[in-house]
Design goal:
about 280 residues, alpha/beta, Rossmann fold, seven-stranded mixed β-sheet, two-stranded antiparallel ribbon, 9 helices, about 25% strand, globular
Length: about 280
C-alpha cells in the first residue's frame, strides 16, 4: 500500500480507544438505551427517510455507532473500515446491543472484492470520509459496484469550501487551501482529535485531499448513478475553526456564530444506480 494508507491507518488505529471512551461517541448510551441513535444519524433522518428492510453498507464506518444506528432504524447493515481495532470495537458493540450489523476490515477501494458486487440497496457514507481518499472517481466506481440496480447512495460530508478555509490570527476565514482534488496530498501533523479527549496521539501525521462539489457529482454521474438530491448545510458535527467564533447548535452540530449563512459547512448527496 502507499504511504498515505499506512500513515492514516496508524493514526486511526491509535484513535480507537480514545474515541470509544469519548462522550462524543457516547458508546455507553448505545449499551443502556436500545432506541439511542448517533447524533450524525439523527441529523440525517429527515433526508434519509425510511430505511427499514434495506440491505445497507456503511463505508468507512470507524467504530460503528452510525452503522448500528441505521440498523436500529430497521436496515440490515454491514460496516466496512480499514482499521482492525475499529472493526473489532464495532463488532463488540453490535454483539452487546444485538444490532443487525456485521463488520468487515478492508480498504474502501477494495470493498466490492471484500463484500461482493451489486449486493446492497443502500450505500451510506458518513461525515468526514472523502477527505481521506486521493481519488473521488475511484470511490464513486466502488459505490456503483456495490449497489444493486435502483440502489441508493446517501452521503453527508464536510463541504469542500469549508476544507479550503483557514482562520487567520484575527479569526477571519481565508481561502488558502486547495478546493479541487490535487495529485499531492495535504499533510497534517496534529496529535489531537475531533472528539473530547485528553489523549495525545503518537501517530499524528496524516495525508488527506479535498474534492470539489462538482468533482464529486461528476464522479457519481460517470459511474452510472443519477443524482436525486443535493443539499448544503450551515453546520458540521465538529468545531473546524478554533479561532473563529462558533456556536454549538445542539445535536452535536457547530455553525458560525456571526452570519452562519455565509458558510456551507456540509453537504448531503443522494443518488441511485441506473438500471
Amino acid at each position: 500500500m502507499t504511504d498515505y494508507h499506512h500513515l492514516n491507518r496508524a493514526n486511526w488505529d491509535e484513535r480507537v480507544p480514545a474515541h470509544v471512551a469519548s462522550p462524543d461517541y457516547n458508546v455507553q448510551a448505545f449499551l443502556e438505551d436500545p432506541a439511542f441513535l448517533s447524533e450524525v444519524v439523527r441529523f440525517d433522518r429527515p433526508l434519509l427517510g425510511d430505511v427499514a428492510g434495506r440491505r445497507g453498507v456503511h463505508l468507512m464506518c470507524h467504530i460503528g455507532t452510525d452503522t448500528i444506528s441505521l440498523a436500529r432504524l430497521g436496515a440490515s447493515m454491514t460496516g466496512l473500515d480499514f482499521s482492525g481495532p475499529a472493526v473489532a470495537e464495532a463488532t463488540r458493540l453490535a454483539a452487546a446491543t444485538g444490532a443487525d450489523a456485521t463488520f468487515v476490515q478492508s480498504d474502501v477501494y477494495d470493498a466490492a472484492e471484500a463484500l461482493g458486487a451489486e449486493r446492497f440497496d443502500l450505500v451510506y457514507t458518513g461525515v468526514g470520509a472523502l477527505t481521506w481518499l486521493p481519488d473521488v472517481g475511484r470511490w464513486a466506481r466502488v459505490v456503483a459496484r456495490l449497489l444493486t440496480p435502483g440502489g441508493r447512495l446517501f452521503i453527508r460530508d464536510g463541504h469542500p469550501m469549508m476544507h479550503a478555509l483557514r482562520a487567520d490570527d484575527d479569526g477571519r476565514l481565508v481561502v488558502v487551501k486547495p478546493y479541487f482534488e490535487t495529485a499531492e496530498p495535504r499533510v497534517s501533523d496534529w496529535d489531537g482529535s475531533y472528539v473530547q479527549t485528553e489523549v495525545r496521539f503518537e501517530n499524528s501525521v496524516t495525508h488527506w485531499w479535498n474534492h470539489g462539489l462538482g468533482e464529486i457529482v461528476t464522479a457519481l454521474l460517470e459511474a452510472g448513478l443519477t443524482l436525486t438530491g443535493l443539499a448544503e448545510h450551515d453546520s458540521v458535527p465538529w468545531r473546524p475553526f478554533s479561532r473563529t467564533p462558533m456556536t454549538n447548535a445542539g445535536n452535536g452540530e457547530w455553525r458560525l456564530t456571526d452570519q452562519p449563512e455565509r458558510l456551507a459547512a456540509t453537504f448531503t448527496i443522494q443518488a441511485v444506480k441506473r438500471a
